[in-house]
Amino acid sequence: MTCSASRYDPSSRPNRLAGARRNLPAFAAPGRTPAAQRVSLPEVTPIALVSAALSTAVSRTASISRTTRETDIQLTLDLDGEGRIDLATGVGFLDHMLELLAKHACIDLTVTAVGDLQVDQHHTVEDIGICLGMAVREALGDKSGIRRYGSMTLPMDETLVTAAIDLGGRYAFEWRLAIPTEKIGDFDSELVEHFWQSFAANAAVNLHVVLHYGRNSHHIAEAAFKACGRSIRQAAEPDPRMKGAPSTKGVL
To answer: Which residue ranges of the chain lie beneath pLDDT 70?
Structure first.
């Protein structure tokens, strides 16, 4: 039996893929879409997206006007602000403290006050605390979906202060913070406590403030306002997991 070897010639193989290639759809180069398949979409900017989201949000703002024989106060508040302020209370140290509060609570706050400062600062400071408490209570609405509780232990140089708040609708106030001097500049130190007591009573909240240690009167007052601001912010923030009022009673 004779076997003859033959050399393989690739050119003699039928090109079965040629016809198949003719029937394949045309593909664009990577990263490009064929003109026939392109779809025109409306241009959407980040600003438009943010505006659409905000238009569906519930506004948490309040405006309070309160006039007595002792003071005339106009106050506006936005709980979902950015710390913007416009303050004219007539009491320089209180303006400073309210600026700190607005920044750390991340609220927008406008306060205009005309008070009987020829007597002393007491009525003006007290009544602004009252108006701020009323505004927070109004802006919170039915309190659905908020965290309700907030607390902050805050250092201010040598000073350490804790503030804790419950926005549950009941008033309680515990103040364990002694300021060592009667005056901070020309401001009566005892008015720091009186401001927050007036706020808590009119916001209908539990507010506890504790000074762990500290020596400088300005630092102690500043730490108290900052800690309260941070606590308010935390408690008032929406909780995405909380459905309805944050209470087993079903209402606050």
So the answer is: 1-57
